[in-house]
Specification:
Layout lengths: L7 H15 L4 H18 L2 E3 L4 H6 L3 E4 L11 E7 L2 E5 L10 E3 L2 E2 L6 H12 L4 E3 L6 E2 L3 E3 L5 E3 L2 H11 L5 H4 L3 E10 L4 E8 L3 E8 L1 H5 L2 E6 L2 E4 L2 H16 L2 E11 L5 H4 L3 E10 L6 H10 L3 E5 L4 H11 L7 E4 H5 L3 H7 L3 E5 L3 H13 L4 E5 L5 H6 L2 E5 L5 H6 L2 E3 L4 H41 L8 H19 L25 H27 L2 H22 L16 H19 L1 H7 L6 H27 L1
Parallel strand pairs: 2-18, 2-21, 14-17, 18-20, 19-20, 21-22, 22-23
Antiparallel strand pairs: 1-23, 3-4, 3-17, 4-5, 5-6, 7-10, 8-9, 9-10, 11-12, 12-13, 13-16, 14-15, 16-17
Helix pairs in contact: 1-18, 2-17, 4-5, 8-11, 10-17, 17-18, 17-19, 17-20, 18-20, 18-21, 19-20, 19-23, 20-21, 20-23, 21-22
Length: 643
């Protein structure tokens, strides 16, 4: 410009203005605002974002490793089958209502007369840390307390609550047992031995040990069994019958616990208390799948996201639930923790893609599974709640903790907290994560196309020997008004209809992938040509540099307004984009357009921004040049779609 005879100071100001136009200084703010608004939307869907960057990672997830209890299921256990005295007994009733019967076939079983059943139910109450109460039948939910109108309030682990409820149906409660029994020691549940042990004193004299836990873990420490004929040695035949009963119950999607006891005398070590036990029986409880999980799993399949169940439950129970919700289908396999321990890392890596259910696994196994998926190139979301789950949650690409049952340690290690402990919420969060990333791409496309158009307008104008097309204050106004508000509004676009039918993007894929850089350059060139066309035509007809600059200024701005609607869909044109699904964008464009009209109509603003009221003839050329851009762009878009 200086070489062509323009004032050096004017050209210096122009250079500064072009630098402002070239650099999308509003982009960091737009991205941050988009993420912040997304976090609020996540919260409305019961997902709390702990780490902001996880929003983008979540949209890339290719594998979800989900716990079963409470995440895929309702976590409202109800004992429905009991195996005691070599016979099956059914338990009626559901939820936390203390109403139900014990039946065998069509006949009701008397708990008072059936000493084995009575002893089994008593063991479930004594070897228990949960609490139930009928004092507060009000609808409320928090971390440890669940109360539903018409049912007893409960506090504690849902499995232990189910045992208290089943015993209460027979009139056996902790309040009644406290008169005769007092706890003197406890070995909490251990994931390695998979059992819990308590030591109680009966009538202040006799000490008894009660154990509950996984069937195979408890039965291997039993040497005797309580029958209707008294206590007899636990023979191999009876062991097989117990294991067969366990197989039958777990195949019906029941979670099964075994119970045993032992009369104590003198001081014994913890290990000695768990040997030579007297087997009492089994209690099987149902935990139905959440109603919305099946649809969520199906959505994951459409989105090419693999769902894997990881649970400490029995293989049969896990498989039954996995089939009900659609996780275990076709030729997908099942692996237990004991099978996993026998595999090397290389063997696990080669098989893990075909495994849909991991059963009887420990927290250490969970960590190993996550690492194996990551080694095979997967983006892994891992759910967890207990303290021991924290390492696996921390190792995952996206760590997910439970808001209701999760421990503080696991929440701290996670990226996202599910406030309702629901698998469907996690799937919804993945959809939101994909949407956020796509919306940021839309904003980037819009802002960089606009900036490219502004820079090319000035550059080509100089090269073609035109007078200065736009003065610095006009460039700054276009940058401030036409770029800012619409770009932020693009950041809150609703998800595309096919967002969950796309393959997750590759983690190495750049932000300009899939032809976006080409689209930015082409659109920038079209905006620049239209702006220069309006400027040169009006200048030639009116011989007024002020009128020509006003025409260029309005053409540039309104071309960008049209372009913002094209950016709503990456492969769409103005002929097929949904205009009314984002009212915020329409309002943003209307506000920006109103500001430009005021600038051209109000006298004091005309002087500040170096514009004049456009004539009718100038408005006609502005309209023609502005509309030419989306028309040509739509033709190019239709050609690409046909190709």
């Amino acid at each position: 410009g200086a070489l062509r005879g323009h004032e050096l100071m004017d050209m210096l100001m122009m250079g500064i203005s072009l630098a402002v136009a070239a650099i999308p200084e509003g982009l960091p703010a737009t991205v941050t605002i988009s993420l912040a608004l997304a976090v609020r939307k996540f919260y409305k869907h019961h997902a709390l974002i702990h780490k902001l960057h996880s929003v983008e990672t979540l949209g890339n997830a290719t594998v979800i490793c989900s716990d079963k209890t409470g995440t895929l299921t309702e976590n409202r256990m109800t004992v429905t089958r009991i195996y005691a005295g070599d016979e099956f007994i059914s338990v009626t009733g559901s939820g936390y209502q203390i109403a139900g019967k014990f039946t065998k076939g069509k006949s009701e079983v008397s708990v008072i007369r059936n000493k084995i059943l009575s002893k089994l139910l008593r063991a479930g109450v004594l070897c228990n840390n949960a609490k139930i109460s009928s004092d507060n039948p009000v609808k409320s939910r928090n971390r440890n307390t669940q109360t539903v109108k018409g049912e007893w309030s409960v506090r504690g682990d849902p499995t232990e609550v189910a045992l208290l409820v089943s015993a209460a149906k027979a009139g056996i409660t902790m309040a009644g047992l406290e008169q005769d029994y007092s706890r003197t020691d406890e070995m909490p549940f251990d994931s390695k031995v998979r059992s819990m042990t308590v030591l109680v004193k009966k009538n202040s004299t006799t000490e008894q040990c009660y154990v509950k836990g996984a069937v195979d873990s408890v039965i291997e420490n039993c040497g005797f069994i309580l029958t209707h004929d008294g206590i007899v040695p636990l023979s191999a035949a009876r062991k097989r019958a117990i294991l067969q009963a366990n197989e039958k119950m777990t195949s019906e999607a029941l979670r099964v616990l075994a119970f045993a006891y032992k009369d104590m005398s003198g001081a014994f070590s913890h290990n000695e208390r768990q040997t030579g036990l007297i087997f009492l029986g089994l209690q099987g409880m149902v935990d139905p799948p959440r109603a919305e999980v099946k649809k969520a799993v199906r959505t994951c399949k459409w989105a090419k996201v693999k769902t894997v169940m990881i649970t400490g439950d029995h293989k049969n129970t896990a498989c039954a639930i996995a089939k009900q919700v659609g996780i275990l289908t076709g030729d997908m396999g099942v692996m237990t923790g004991s099978e996993l321990e026998k595999l090397t890392d290389d063997q696990l890596d080669s098989r893990i893609s075909n495994i849909a259910v991991f059963a009887r696994v420990s927290p250490t196994d969970k960590l190993r599974i996550v690492k194996a998926f990551k080694r095979t190139g997967e983006i892994v979301a891992m759910t967890g709640d207990g303290v021991n789950d924290a390492p696996a949650v921390k190792e995952a690409s996206i760590g997910v903790s439970m808001g209701i049952t999760g421990t503080d340690v696991t929440k701290e290690a996670s990226d996202i907290i599910l406030l309702d402990d629901n698998f469907a919420t996690l799937v919804k969060a993945i959809e939101q994560g994909r949407t956020v990333y796509e919306n940021i791409r839309k904003s980037i496309r819009y802002m960089l196309s606009s900036n490219t158009g502004e820079v090319l307008t000035m550059l080509l104008g100089m090269i073609m020997g035109f007078p200065v097309v736009l003065v610095p204050i006009q460039i700054l106004l276009v940058n401030l008004v036409t770029d800012g508000l619409p770009a932020i509004a693009l950041g809150v676009e609703p998800p595309d209809e096919d967002i969950m039918r796309r393959t997750p993007r590759h983690p190495d894929e750049g932000i300009f992938a899939n032809g976006m850089l080409f689209a930015i350059v082409i659109r920038g060139i079209l905006i620049a040509l239209a702006t220069l066309g309006a400027f040169s035509t009006v200048l030639r007809l009116t011989q007024s540099i002020g009128m020509a600059r006003t025409a260029a200024f309005l053409t540039l701005a309104f071309s960008q307004f049209f372009h913002v609607f094209e950016c709503k869909h990456e492969k769409g044109t103005l002929l097929n984009v949904p205009y009314l699904n984002n009212i915020k964008l329409i309002l943003a464009v209307l506000v920006s357009a109103s500001i430009l009209i005021l600038v051209c109509c109000v006298g004091i603003l005309q002087k500040v921004f170096a514009v004049v009221p456009p004539s009718t003839q100038a408005l006609a050329y502005i309209a023609v040049c502005t509309l030419a851009v989306p028309v040509v762009s739509s033709i190019i878009g239709l050609f690409k779609l046909r190709k």
